Amino acid sequence: MLLQLLSRFYFFVFDRLICYHLLKIYSAQFKIRFMNLGYVNDNDGAVNNAIRENGVEESEAPHIGLYEKTLSLHPQYPSLNDCRLLEVGCGQGGGIDWINRSHPSLTSVTGMDRVAIRDSIVTGDAHDLPFKPSSFDIVINIESSHLYRNPQLFFDECSRVLSKGGHLCWTDLRFDGDEKQVLNQAEKAGFKLVSIEEITDSVIRGMEKVAQRYDQILLTAPWYIKLFGDTFRKTYCAPGTEAYVKREKRYWTACWVKK
Amino acid sequence: MKLLTHNFLSSRFLKNVTTGYPLKLTIEEKNVVEAEIDVNFLKNVMVKIDYAVLYEAAKSVGEDENLPSPNAIVDIDSLNEQQLKQLHRVLVCLDVVIGSLECPETGRIFPIRDGIPNLLVNEDEVS
């Protein structure tokens, strides 16, 4: 029990104080623009068409697949015309670049993260979104909310910044059964579920592709990054790590509409 | 930071702040990247923003000349070429590189560096 708590604390500190700050410094050098685990599904025509039509580097295709899969649950997809989109937890900004490219009819695409490294991104907190009410028509949140100290506050804030009829497109992992908490939190925040889908198998295929690339990057990284090599591998759930082997978590994507 | 982003930003998360909008913009450095005018985009964006706030933001960066007055409803089809160009310039081409945003209720300053507005605050500042 104590070891589990210490391990959780270590990963909390690693995420907040080491991982994101190292990425801020090295993301350009190692061409890391995405931080999600990826999504690969050969039978998903909508996602694969979007990737094919927009010409994507093979190494980024799984990450982009997860963005497109998440957006594809929006009832108007792929025509997201005239919508103002906010990505909460946009990381290095690869996702907002992709969305700008693949959905040029959006009115605006804004990113927000605790660690922002470039323009078009606002530095802010997912629990206290620094935007006025009804500023957006779509909020997208990819593989980020499991890190939030209070997911209910996050859902409340998403509801506040969305206009009535706006959509929250969300993807993340949870321990088996905990997805019910997510559904409750979203409902309590004033959302009505449009659809939810379990995509664990496709994300595992994505993880395998992503891990191959990141393992290669780790081999050429400076020694002080290699020091955290095992922790980084656990972060991206590389084959052989506990998370990959045990598979205690399921991966979900969902879309809600603001009532 | 685009002025379009400024149009959405608020400091309402601060303690004792009710709306925190609009944030007062001050700039030290701006950048303009020319782009082709897209009138349809301007039409779509105008119905989604608070134009009076955009106008004031443009004024604070010295870009209000030729912008239509915020006192009347702005109809894109009735704007002359100069007005359209200026509207396009402030919405699409202009970036605030260095500057600050000020909460209208508390005076709390949020810096803008490298085009990134930083609205992260200490835990004891949040309501």
From TrEMBL, chain A:
One matching Pfam family: Methyltransf_11
Example of a GO cellular component annotation carried by this entry: endoplasmic reticulum
GO terms assigned for molecular function: sterol 24-C-methyltransferase activity
Top-level taxon of origin: Eukaryota
Listed GO biological process terms: sterol biosynthetic process
Entries under InterPro entries matching the protein: Erg6_SMT_methyltransf, Methyltransf_11, SAM-dependent_MTases_sf
Family per similarity comment: Belongs to the class I-like SAM-binding methyltransferase superfamily. Erg6/SMT family.
Protein name per the record: Methyltransferase
Lineage: Eukaryota, Metazoa, Ecdysozoa, Nematoda, Chromadorea
Name of the gene encoding the protein in the UniProt record: WBGene00272416
UniProtKB/TrEMBL annotation, chain B:
Molecular functions (GO terms): protein heterodimerization activity; tRNA methyltransferase activator activity
Single GO cellular component term: tRNA (m2G10) methyltransferase complex
GO BP terms: maturation of LSU-rRNA; maturation of SSU-rRNA; positive regulation of rRNA processing
Domain of life according to the entry: Eukaryota
Entries under SUPFAM superfamilies matching the protein: Trm112p-like
CDD domains, per the entry: Trm112-like
Pfam families given in the database record: Trm112p
Family: Belongs to the TRM112 family.
Protein name, per record: Multifunctional methyltransferase subunit TRM112-like protein
